[in-house]
């Protein structure tokens, strides 16, 4: 029997090579073998039906149902040892980078699970970060919009003003144990960059932060903060000059320095093991919130929601509630509208594709290339989404909704005026969804993850929405 290479099959089936490798990883190409470090595919193999195209799902490829997942043991089952949540996730990297990521995974499984590491991280969270962060009942906001009670998990009160430090301190501590000398990171809104800069200062490490020029202009306050903290902020001037390109640049430079540097990824995206690592370091949010809400009210909320770009604050919030009878909602940015290029609603409008070394849902142009993502929130304008979010959407456990720029802006100013809390414009997307529910539901409770504070957004929002200010 004649066998073909991945490249030959990709050309024959009119697919890109990454897509063929995804099909191989899912064991969907009959007769394929792995020999001498390469895949060989029978010339007679037939192209599998594409799950991404409506109407082409085979019975055995239909989505898992929510009832098929044992959410009490979910964390033990997902991701799989090779980094998959269902068919999403994995690692698609060149050999030199794969070796570096394998080192990180091995270090995480041994070092980060040790009693010494856990004790040190707990001390950092308590005495440096100021955890636990509280839950706050928005009584004024709730009364203004109706009878639905809105509660906030106040991650804006975490040191640095956002949830990002939970992950940055964990990864920086792991880098220290691995003997690395530098942290490399990407940032959009600047919250992750600021958190990594803080972590680098705390542990005495060098720090390079890659940031798109568009985001640097919008988030000048965070750029200044990173520089004050001792980080080198490196402008990214190609493409859309936003978060996707910042990730591209950070990966490119990490590939040159991986022997002495640690890539500190800021969201629940990227090649395995980063979606796992970020989830584990961020799940402190949901664990605290669940216990605090029960102590405050004696029951669980009706809805738990959080904004979703890459998805780290949301996955950290959702994890503790997956096994509970609670509606969980991820809120994506619909931006200016549903046309590709005007939003970053990846789960709502995306298609399956490998991006930045992992398989997930991605916003695509008509030719199948990753599209430019847009959002008023710099931290949400990423064309992909974390593989675990794609999986939770696929199995139906988490519902994903979207709100526009204008809805998020209303939430930004109303929370500020009625409660004296200025939210990050990213977090305001989740709050906007809660306000939407307040206008339609007769009763109930909504717990919103307020993932960050809005100091960084003030100048931009005042300039863009002056109508909300008292003259």
Labels describing this entry:
17% strand; Rossmann fold; six-stranded mixed beta sheet; four-stranded parallel beta sheet; alpha/beta
Helix count, per DSSP? Answer: 19
In CATH, the architecture of the largest domain is 3-Layer(aba) Sandwich
Strand arrangement, major sheet: 6-7-17-12-13-16
Structural class from helices and strands? Answer: alpha/beta
- Quote the beta fraction: 15-25%
Shape: globular
Helix content: 40-55%
Q: What number of structural domains do the residues give?
A: 3
Largest sheet: 6 strands, mixed
Under CATH, the topology of the largest domain can be stated as Rossmann fold
Mind telling me the C-alpha Rg?
A: 22 Å
pLDDT < 50 runs, ≥5 residues:
51-62
């Amino acid at each position: 029997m004649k066998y073909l290479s991945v490249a030959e099959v990709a050309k024959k089936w009119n697919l890109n090579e990454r897509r063929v490798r995804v099909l191989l990883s899912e064991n969907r190409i009959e007769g394929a073998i792995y020999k001498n470090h390469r895949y060989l595919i029978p010339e007679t193999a037939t192209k599998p039906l594409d799950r991404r195209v409506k109407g082409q799902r085979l019975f055995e490829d239909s989505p898992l149902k929510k009832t098929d997942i044992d959410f009490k043991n979910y964390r033990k089952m997902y991701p799989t040892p090779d980094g998959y949540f269902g068919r999403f996730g994995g690692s698609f990297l060149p050999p030199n980078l794969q070796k570096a990521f394998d080192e990180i995974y091995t270090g995480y499984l041994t070092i980060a699970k040790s009693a010494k590491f856990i004790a040190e991280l707990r001390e950092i969270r308590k005495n440096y970060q100021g955890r636990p962060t509280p839950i706050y009942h928005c009584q004024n906001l709730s009364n203004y919009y109706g009878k639905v009670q809105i509660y906030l998990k106040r991650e804006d009160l975490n040191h640095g003003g956002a949830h990002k430090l939970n992950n940055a301190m964990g990864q920086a501590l792991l880098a220290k144990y691995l003997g690395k000398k530098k942290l490399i990171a990407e940032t959009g809104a600047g919250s992750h960059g600021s958190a990594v800069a803080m972590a680098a200062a705390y542990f005495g490490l060098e720090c390079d932060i890659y940031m798109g020029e568009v985001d640097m202009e919008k988030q000048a306050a965070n750029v200044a903060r990173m520089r004050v903290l001792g980080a080198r902020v490196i402008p990214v001037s190609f493409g859309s000059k936003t978060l996707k390109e910042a990730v591209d640049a950070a990966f490119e430079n990490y590939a040159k320095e991986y022997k002495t540097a640690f890539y500190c990824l800021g969201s629940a995206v990227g090649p395995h093991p980063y979606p796992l690592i970020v989830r584990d370091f961020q799940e402190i949010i949901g664990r605290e919130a669940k216990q605090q809400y029960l102590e405050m009210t004696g029951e669980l909320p009706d809805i738990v929601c959080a904004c979703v770009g890459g998805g780290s604050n949301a996955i950290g919030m959702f994890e503790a509630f997956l096994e509970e009878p609670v509606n969980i909602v991820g809120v994506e940015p619909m931006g200016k509208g549903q046309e590709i290029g005007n939003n970053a609603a990846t789960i709502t409008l995306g298609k399956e594709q490998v991006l930045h070394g992992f398989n997930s849902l991605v916003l695509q142009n008509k030719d199948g290339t990753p599209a430019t993502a847009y959002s008023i929130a710099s931290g949400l304008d990423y064309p992909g989404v974390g593989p675990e979010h794609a999986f939770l959407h696929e199995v139906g456990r988490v519902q994903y909704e979207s709100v526009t720029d204008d809805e998020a802006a209303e939430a930004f100013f109303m929370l500020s005026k009625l409660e004296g809390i200025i939210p990050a414009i990213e977090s305001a997307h989740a709050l906007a969804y809660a306000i939407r529910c307040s206008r339609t539901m007769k009763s109930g409770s909504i717990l919103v993850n307020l993932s960050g504070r809005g100091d960084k957004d003030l100048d931009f929002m005042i300039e863009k929405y002056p109508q909300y200010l008292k003259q």
